[in-house]
Amino acid sequence: MDDLVQITLLSLGVSGVATAISLLIGLPLGTVLALSVFRSRGLVLSVVNTGMALPPVVAGLAIALMLWRSGPLGDLNLIYTPTAIVIAEVVIATPVILGLAAAGIGQLDPRLQVQLQGLGASRYQTVWWLWREARLSLLAALMAGFGSVISEVGAAMMVGGNISGQTRVLTTAIVLDVSRGDFGTAIELAGILLALAFMVNGVLTWAQQSGRRG
Amino acid sequence: MRPDQPLLPPAGGPVAPNARTLQPVLEVRDLRVVRGGRQVLGIQHFAVAAQETVAVVGPNGAGKSTLLLALSLLIGPQEGSLFLHGKVVTPRLALNLRRQIGLVLAAPMLLDTTVRQNVAAGLRFRGIRGQQVSTRVDEWLDRLGILPLRDRHARELSSGEAQRVSLARAFVLEPEVLLLDEPFASVDAAARSQLIDDTERLLRETSRACVVVTHDLDEASRLGTRMAVIIDGQLRQDDVPQSVLSAPCDEDVAAFVGVQTRLLGRVESVQDGLAVVDVGGCRIEALSTLSPGRQVMCCLRPEDVTLRLSGQAGPVTSARNRLTGSILRIVGKGPFVQVTVACGPMIVADVTRASATEMGLREGEQVEATFKATAVHLIGLQQ
Predict the structure, then answer these.
(1) A121 → closest Cβ in B107, B125, B153
(2) pLDDT at residue B252 tops 80
(3) What would the mean pLDDT of B129-147 be, rounded to a whole number?
């Protein structure tokens, strides 16, 4: 049972930290992408959109190659650690949050930015109010980002190694249990995973809906 | 700009009779705005002083709104120098400039929050906090007649209410200059007239310098102490509304301000400031100092022309110009009908619907068009 709690907490922790980091990277970049006009904007947008559809296994492979003992970042000794899983999940979630945040902010009426600046808003005050206006889309971006990593298995397996008590998360544990024929535990873990996803998204949806007014 | 000049009288104090002697609050020189390699706006000089409302008019796409955005450094790339109270404003100081203006756009662009928070936004941007915010917000909601709406959500308002919030949001900042871009365009007709009156009153009460962009000449002459006509990205005329309407400086301006009769002619003779112009064989008398032989365009506003049926006795008038012809066309125009008379040259006259019916004006009917020499404005053309 301790094992179960530990696996669940690790899953939640790794995905939560990865989502938070992705938000810190994706929201500012998505804002810049939505608000600025530059020549290679189309190219950047396609790269981001490709990133949104990036197969987690590919991200996992790339991070594994980097962190492998003989790889360029091998000296950091990060392979098969929770940190490695976080790094891989950041690579997966960042384009999702970035792309959806850019789309959400890009959908705002461009005159709103003009109006805010015309009322004397500084650059940061303008961005703050634009985020506030786009808060429903931004919360949706956050949910999509979290959803993409909490349910992810390939990368977590590859860079985490599914080491019991260290890097075993809900998804990798389910895969192992199924391969061992232990369907009972697999179903139990799947239930926890579903409940977790439901709870986190429930909280965010509640925040989103109450944000409709106010 | 002379810095040693005395300061302007305080707001609400005595008003200088001639706004042109006032120091400009906001001024732009040699402005050039380029979009996609094409110059969309080129203005040598434009200024607005305190207690002055400049109505910027012109056809759609002429560059009016671009001027407004350029005045608040909200668009680029642009060339030229902008001065606030005679001090040059560089792009680095743009935020500083924008904190001295209040911008109202055609669409209210309200934030997704309450009315009160919307009006408070600009004050908060300036770091104003606490009791002062709610006092000022409530004062301006009251002055715009929307105090009861203060706790409503901004997205639930009617078009007129929403634009009042947007105006309150700008007025509450007590800015040096108010910049209004088609502020009544989104408001439905029923609420518009009252809103224009209220805006005019508040501008007068606050002595605020104001630039209001509009395509509507009625709005412009109701609000403007000056009228600036922009056509094809150029400032063609900048004068008191009466002068722009009755003495346009070129044909484009004349056409825009509703001078419907525009006739090419040549000055035959001038005596005591009264010119006789030959227009395709017809003689038209006008007040002018242009020299004989000069090619001119005769401008005549339709409301300055009186019609009566030929052969009927009418009131004796002092009008020096009488031309007869047959009615070519009658078109409705609000409470008037617009009658085009072929007198040789085409003369356009506005007649109230009632008198048109009374006189029995019909197409093909022979009529006499009379107008005073003072009603005719001559534009000297390049030789």
Answers:
(1) B125
(2) yes
(3) 95
Cβ–Cβ below 8 Å for A120 and B111: no
Taking an 8 Å cut-off on Cβ atoms, the answer to whether B98 and A118 are in contact is yes
Res. B299: pLDDT tops 50: yes
Distance CA B45, CA B58 (A): 17
As a whole number, mean pLDDT of residues B287-302 equals 92
- Residue of chain B with shortest Cα separation from A110: B109
List all residues 6 or more positions away from A73 whose beta carbon is below 8 Å from its beta carbon: A66, A67
SS3 label, residue B335: coil
pLDDT value at position B289?
83
**Which chain A residue is nearest to residue B74, measuring alpha carbons?**
A114
The confidence score (pLDDT) of residue A214 equals 45
Strands B53-57 and B209-213: parallel
Q: How confident is the model at residue B1 (pLDDT cuts 50, 70, 90)?
A: very low
Interhelix angle B115-125/B159-171, nearest 10 degrees: 30
Cβ(B305)–Cβ(B340) under 8 Å? no
Pick left, alpha or beta for residue B63 (phi over 0 → left; psi -120 to 50 → alpha; otherwise beta): left
Q: For residue B258, is pLDDT > 50?
A: yes
Q: How many A×B Cβ pairs under 8 Å?
A: 57
Nearest to B202 by CA among B287, B141, B119: B141
Question: CA B316 to CA A111: how far, in whole Å?
Answer: 58
Looking at beta carbons, which residues of chain A come within 8 Å of B111? 129, 132-133
Q: Tell me: the pLDDT tens digits for A107-146?
A: 999 999 999 999 999 999 999 999 999 999 999 999 999 9
pLDDT higher than threshold 90 for residue B6 = no
The residue ranking higher by pLDDT, B37 or B16, is B37
Using the Cβ of B74 and the Cβ atoms of chain A, whether some distance falls under 8 Å is answered with yes
Pick from B266, B274, B224: which is nearest to B245 by CA?
B224
* CB contacts, 8 Å: A125 with chain B: 125
Kindly state the average pLDDT of the residues B202-218. 93
The ipTM of this complex is 0.84
Contact B74 A117 (CB under 8 A): yes
Q: Among partner residues A111, A119, A132, which is closest to B125 by beta-carbon distance?
A: A119
First to last CA, chain A: 43
Q: If 0-12 CB within 10 Å is exposed, 13-18 middle and 19+ buried, where does residue B190 land?
A: exposed
- What's the token pair of residue B331? 């078109």
Edge-first strand order for the sheet with B336-342 is: B306-309, B366-371, B321-333, B336-342, B346-352
In this prediction, the residues of chain A whose per-residue pLDDT falls under 70 are: 1-2, 211-214
A contact test, residue of B93, B100, B110, B112 with most A CBs within 10 A = B112
Question: At A76, which amino acid appears?
Answer: L
Closest chain B residue to A133, measured at CA: B112
B215 and B58 Cβ atoms separated by less than 8 Å: yes
* Residue of A38, A119, A137 best to disrupt the B interface, most CBs of B under 10 A: A119
pTM confidence score:
0.85
